[in-house]
Amino acid sequence: MRIRDLPVADQQVALWWRRRRLLCQQAACPRASFTQVSGEIPPRSRLTSRLRQRLAEAIAGSNRAVSEVAAEYGVAWRTAHRALVAAAAQWLGPPAPTRVLGIDETRARAVRWVLAEQGWRRSDPWMTSFVDADTAGPGLLLGLAPGRSGACVRTWLAEQSAEFRQGIELVVIDPSAPYASGIRAALPQARIAVDHWHLVRLANEVVTEVRQRVTRQLHQRRGLASDPVWAHRRMLLTAGDRLSQRQLHRLNRVLDADDPTGEISAAWGCKELLRQLLAQHEPARIRAALWRFYQACAQANMPETTRLAHTIETWWPAILVALTERVTNARTEGFNRIIKQVKRVACGFTNMDNYRRRIMAHIAVTRPRLQAA
């Protein structure tokens, strides 16, 4: 029988195996005949085990398409995919216990509308990532679950062991009410922390909304390149402590020239005070910075800043946990970047099981290499 094996010196090897058939002379033997077996070649297989392992590592490690790897080694697409599925079952074991769990979502594919009996409904193309966010260890993607609701969080945590759930002390999330409700139901002993990056993003959105509203009120149109505020809109979103003295003077001139009501300046001040609040970790300084932020939002007396203050007030217990424990969701965002790269190479997945397997296998193969390097 012809066996496919690894190439040697970039040349395909023609391997033939003469398997001897042995006959049993005992009349009571149920099989009567036997064939030689080899540990390198599984039964009913035409590929060596090392070739199957190489196929799986080439697909997962280099993040290449299955068809490309199959053509390189001269096998069928289904053969290469079966090798990946078998190897992934060995690589992907139960998640390791962690003290800090990070949760975030990524878009699995474009939004689709499906015609059902009750009418058109929107498909849910999201996938929730569960990451080991404890900075004491190297970190790893623990699992993926379809959806981005509290139900998917409860379902994934229910599938884990009781020791895994009891070991979680902190859960870092975005300001998401569905995630928070799912965590409270599945992990009543864990404390919830909100990542500060998303809060700064909300403050930047407030500055943008105020700038657009003031421009429409003054000029009865949207912003143009001739407007100083529109031309320097990026500077308004830059952190104030990262601006040079020259840039600060320019920003003051822009606001004096194109902000007669002072509302854009007030929104920018609220944003900077929120950033200063999120940079504190001592309880006394946190209380002082929080009072300054609330006072600035009250003095601004704008719907946008008032909404921002209400959001901070709603999530303040979780924000305080993030500040005092000094935890963030940065590691989860890093794994989201890897997930997006895998999705980009595949140009989209129609099968969610393949989507999850490719992501988990890619990280399982490449993560030890990065740690060793």
Explain what you see.
With 373 residues, the protein is of the alpha+beta class. It has 3 domains: 2-91, no CATH class; 100-195 and 328-372, Ribonuclease H-like superfamily/Ribonuclease H (Nucleotidyltransferase, domain 5, 2-Layer Sandwich), CATH 3.30.420.10; 196-325. 54% of the residues lie in helices and 13% in strands. It is built from 16 helices and 11 strands. The protein has helices spanning 49-61, 66-73, 77-91, 150-159, 162-166, 177-186, 196-219, 228-231, 233-237, 245-258, 263-278, 283-300, 303-314, 316-325, 330-346, 352-372; strands spanning 2-3, 15-16, 21-23, 33-35, 100-107, 113-116, 119-122, 126-132, 141-146, 170-173, 191-194. The protein has a 5-stranded mixed sheet with strand order 9-8-5-10-11, with helices on both faces.
Helix and strand sequence: EEEEHHHEEEEEHHEHEHHHHHHHHHH
Query: Could you say which overall geometry the principal axes of the C-alpha atoms support?
Result: elongated
Q: How many discrete structural domains?
A: 3
Structural Rg: 29 Å
Helix/strand class: alpha+beta
